[in-house]
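> forwarded from #structure-qc
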């Protein structure tokens, strides 16, 4: 499959009712506009609190049904899963990113069975599974081997698709990974069954600190500035989104959210025919949580204002750790 052919495949973006809803945006905040990110630990019964993100946990695969059941009952439609290897061995190739012992590979079939209407997206990256903590495979000099990296990323994407993922969400920011993933999915018969949600516009941000604690994925040396976008780079953001659209992405993410609403608006304006996601990242969550906890803001009021700003800027779906709270906020209030 060529990149041009991948771009003209429409079925991978509309095979599920929720995906079709994202193709028909409005300006409200509803449960359809939320995706809940969840850390899945390789300890089946664990519920591990994350110190830098109060109220957020790493869950073992046996815990997910318990915590998701009430949220689905309140209207939750989609989740984004991140694997967290606490015991699985790490190496230079991320071998356990798609091994049978991987928590994502194990939990997706269970979730499909327990919640048949829940849309399951799986983050695809090497950083939690590599000994060096970078998002790709490295050359001997420590630089990224892009070709080897996207080959490995595509293998992981196919493994998650085989496990039952509705959406593959590559966050590695390697050049050419969307096209490689699309070809891999097509070769296994998933062209019209699995969507690709690209972290198309992902900046090298200071807002990711708590996430790297949560996912145990901090780089062991250097940083990720050679493959994530510089914070001031409007031009590169435009090129990154256009590249991923050309390679066949079904949906796009801008990440982080609040500090990049101008980029979100520009990206949506440039690609209005694509569902646009924004990630309210871990640092944004912690900032609002601690501000409210210290009495500086009213959490529900300010959170609602932030969500509206993201929708106004063009987000069709907001990836947020506040999803459980927002679902409560969306419940009809009793008049009595």
């Amino acid at each position: 499959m060529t990149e041009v052919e991948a771009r003209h495949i429409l079925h991978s973006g509309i095979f599920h009712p929720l995906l079709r809803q994202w193709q028909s945006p409005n300006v409200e905040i509803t449960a359809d506009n939320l995706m809940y990110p969840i850390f899945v630990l390789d300890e089946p019964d664990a519920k591990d609190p994350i110190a830098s993100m109060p109220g957020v946990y790493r869950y073992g695969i046996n815990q997910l049904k318990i915590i998701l059941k009430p949220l689905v009952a309140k209207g939750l439609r989609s989740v984004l899963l991140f694997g967290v290897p606490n015991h699985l061995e790490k190496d230079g190739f991320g071998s356990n990113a798609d091994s049978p012992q991987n928590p994502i590979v194990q939990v997706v079939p269970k979730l499909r069975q327990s919640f048949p209407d829940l849309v399951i997206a799986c983050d695809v990256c090497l950083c939690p599974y590599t000994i060096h903590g970078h998002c790709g495979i490295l050359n001997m000099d420590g630089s990224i081997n892009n070709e080897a990296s996207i080959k490995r990323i595509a293998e992981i994407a196919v493994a998650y698709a085989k496990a039952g993922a509705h959406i593959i969400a590559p966050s590695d920011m390697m050049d050419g990974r969307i096209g490689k993933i699309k070809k891999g999915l097509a070769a296994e018969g998933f062209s019209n069954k699995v969507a690709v949600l690209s972290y198309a516009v992902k900046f090298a941000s200071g807002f990711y600190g708590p996430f790297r604690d949560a996912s145990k994925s901090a780089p062991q040396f250097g940083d990720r500035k050679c493959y994530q976008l510089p914070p001031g780079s409007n031009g590169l953001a435009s090129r990154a989104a256009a590249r991923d659209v050309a390679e066949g992405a079904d949906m796009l993410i801008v990440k982080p959210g609040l500090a990049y609403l101008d980029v979100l608006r520009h990206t949506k304006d440039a690609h209005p025919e694509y569902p646009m996601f924004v990630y309210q990242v871990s640092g944004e969550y912690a900032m609002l949580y601690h501000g409210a906890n210290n009495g500086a803001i009213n959490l529900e009021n300010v959170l609602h204002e932030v969500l509206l700003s993201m929708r106004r800027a063009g987000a069709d779906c907001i990836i947020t750790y506040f999803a459980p709270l927002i679902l409560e906020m969306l419940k009809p209030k009793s008049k009595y």
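QC bot note: Residues 99 and 105 are 7 Å apart (CA to CA). The longest helix spans residues 146-163.
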